[in-house]
Every structure is written in structure tokens, then in C-alpha cells.
Amino acid sequence: MPRIEARNLSVEYPIFNAGSMLLRNALIAAGTGGTISRGVKNIVTVKALDGATFTIEEGDRVGLVGHNGAGKSTLLRVLGGIYSPTSGNLRVNGRTAGIFALGAGLDGELTGYENIVRMGMLLGLRKAEALQMLPDVEAFTELVAAGKIRHWGVSNFDVADLEELESLPGGKNVASDQVLYNVTRRGIEFELLPRTRAKDINVMAYTPIEQGRILGNTALREVARRHNVSPAQIALAWTIRSAGVVSIPRSGSPAHTRENAAAAGIELTDRDLQEIDRAFAPPKKSRPLEML
Predict the structure, then answer these.
(1) Domains of the chain listed by start with CATH number
(2) Helix, strand, or coil here: 244?
(3) Cβ atoms of 283 and 189 closer than 8 Å
(4) Looking only at Cα atoms, what is the longest distance across the chain?
(5) Is the pTM of this model over 0.85?
């Protein structure tokens, strides 16, 4: 999960040609917030950031308020990896990108497409990635605007892919991510599924019964017996047991379609879920996205 954790962050700038500490410097320091002092070898330093401690979780919105010299821009540059802290610890889980001007990356001499690609690169995309994804995003956006589709989605996008998509104009309008998900393919539960839920992106689970290979599993058969349904229906019910996930099983007949649809009415108990977890352990660490 994206997270920024700072503990006692401090940044000091050396001023090698400052000369003597004049009264004017002291007054400026008092008025703007930077602490001026003499450090090693009598070098004058300005402490622009002093002991900042905070945690930012996914979904948080943070505003920095302070007068000139309070350390706002310095802190942002530290978070963006532009500056290194003089002391303290910073832990960033995910990717950061800093933009310090509203027009950053925009050039009046370039076309709209060229500016979009430049902005994508400024936000961390490689040029080839921005160019590859841009036409698809534009096409889907135009279809929505024309009323021909309501929403659009992607397939086999992991967390990094979704972050890249969201950095493109219109990319945040993605509605679904189709990925491999069933009781034997639970890797998305560790990182991808929490992120899609936080962003209100539906996960579309394909191959929910693992092409039939799981239907002989003892745990699934026992849970199915208690509910008087088939193991396949239990496997389907498991994939859609919580919000944010839909399942797309194959069907070869109307009767099979009705059987699949009936899985939506199965309510798995805590006992059912515990037995399935014992048979198919949930992930304990991040895994590469699986595909078939």
C-alpha cells in the first residue's frame, strides 16, 4: 500500500560565503523561519527543516501552511527525492513525483499530444509507456463522451500499471481491472485488491474455477455439501464474497449459466471461509501478478 512515513526529518543548507553573522541575518531568520547557525569548521548553515514527523496513508490529502522560509518547499523536495535529509528517516512505499509549478512540463510551442507525453514523463513514465497508453485512454474517453459506452476498464494491470495509467489525462476514469483470481491465485489480495477498492475500481476475476482443476478439492466439496450446491458454485461465491469483485465464469449452456448466476445467492459462513483459507492460504507478501 502507498505510504509515506517521516521521523524527525531535518535539512540544513551550508552557506560557504556567508561571512559574519550580521544582525540583519538574525532578523531575517526570525521573520521567515529558517534557523541560522555556525556548524562544523565555522561554516554558516540554515536549518530549513527541523524534526518533521508524520505519516501519510493512501487516500490522505495534506496541505502545508506556513510563511516564507517555514520549510514547505524543502519538505516537498525531500519527499520527492530531490533533496536528502540531513538527519532523520524517510520511508516511501510507492512512487512520488513533484511538480512545483502549475505550468511545469507544458510548452506553448508543442502540440497537445506532445505536452501530454511530456507531463507523463515528468510524473515518472518512460516515453514509450506514455505513448503506448495514450491512444487507448483517449479512445475510451471519446466513447464515453459520445454516449457509446458508460465506463471502460483494463486487463492484467498490477499496482504499478494502475499508477502509470492514473498519471495520464483521463486515466483516473478507469472503472475495472480484469485479472486472474480464484482460491488458488490469491496474490492480488495483498496489494492490488486493497488499492482497487480504495480507488473504487472493480476487479473482474477471470478463470474463477481454475479451468476446473480445483473442483475435486476436499475443502470446496465439503463446503458445497453443507450448502447443497456444486463445488464450482462455491468457488464462484468465494470470488465475489466481498465488495469490489465480480466474476466472469465460462458457460456452455443456459442451464450452466443459471447455475453460475445462482452462486451470487450463496452466503459463505465464517466456518466456510476458514476451511477454504486452510486449504488455499492467503498471501503473506506481495507477488507478481499471475496470468493465464
Answers:
(1) 3-93 (no CATH), 175-279 (3.20.20.100)
(2) coil
(3) yes
(4) 89
(5) no
